[in-house]
Amino acid sequence: MKILLVEDDKKLGKLLRLALMRHTHIVEWSQSGHDSTQKIHDNTYDAVILDVSLPDTDGFSLCRLWRQEDINTPVLFLTARNTVNDKVEGLYSGGDDYVTKPFALEEVLARLHSLTRRGELAIRPDSYQIGNLRIDLTTKSLFCGTRPMSLAPKEWAVLEILLRHHRQVVTREDLLDGAWPSEVDFKANVVDAVIARLRKQLHSCRGGPKLQTLRGQGFMLS
């Protein structure tokens, strides 16, 4: 999933971002209502994790504004407010679920998955068939027709992100964040090297998907 995280607490935001990326989500982090509104206007997200207390607005008003603009991305609120009235206000403002601080990271992940099960988000498949190529992410198996193929671990990590966003543009930064979340010293040219190896493997499968480089934008599996 591609997630917009709106949290002004830098320590908590960094912790949540890394935890979500380790679960192969692509995460864009915003620290204000103004910036997050720009992001949600310019991008498509599968879910928003929205802090209620922001420096320039409150999350309830922000969510209400988005709903008025017909932005229907599922919203999971994070807040220290834990009264029934606060929870009711959050749901009436257009939110889909509510987590009170302090919370366990596992609870946030579970509630995101709960939204998926309720049909608010697309269920993530673990098996894909793209043309003549069959991919199973659970068993890490790859077949061109009946011919088995093999990938290195980072090639698998990059392929999984591209599959989760099939026919969508994925930036180098998205791939760095998703495939190398704790390896901060890696540069974009490392992504290019893995992309080159992965492209060679995929393009060796006649009738399989194409891995495109879109200049100035990123990569797309089609």
UniProtKB/TrEMBL annotation:
Pfam families recorded: Response_reg (PF00072), Trans_reg_C (PF00486)
Any one annotated GO CC term: protein-DNA complex
Domain Response regulatory: 2-116
DNA-binding region: 125-222
Listed Gene3D superfamilies: 3.40.50.2300, 6.10.250.690, Winged helix-like DNA-binding domain superfamily/Winged helix DNA-binding domain (1.10.10.10)
InterPro entries membership: CheY-like_superfamily, OmpR/PhoB-type_DNA-bd, Sig_transdc_resp-reg_C-effctor, Sig_transdc_resp-reg_receiver, WalR-like, WH-like_DNA-bd_sf
Keywords for this protein: DNA-binding, Phosphoprotein, Transcription, Transcription regulation, Two-component regulatory system
Listed SMART domains: REC, Trans_reg_C
DNA-binding is among the record's keywords: yes
Any single biological process term in GO: regulation of DNA-templated transcription
Residues with PTM 4-aspartylphosphate: 51
DNA-binding is among the record's keywords: yes
All residue ranges annotated as the OmpR/PhoB-type domain in the record: 125-222
Function: May play the central regulatory role in sporulation. It may be an element of the effector pathway responsible for the activation of sporulation genes in response to nutritional stress. Spo0A may act in concert with spo0H (a sigma factor) to control the expression of some genes that are critical to the sporulation process.
Protein name listed in UniProt: Stage 0 sporulation protein A homolog
Species of origin: Sulfobacillus thermosulfidooxidans (strain DSM 9293 / VKM B-1269 / AT-1)
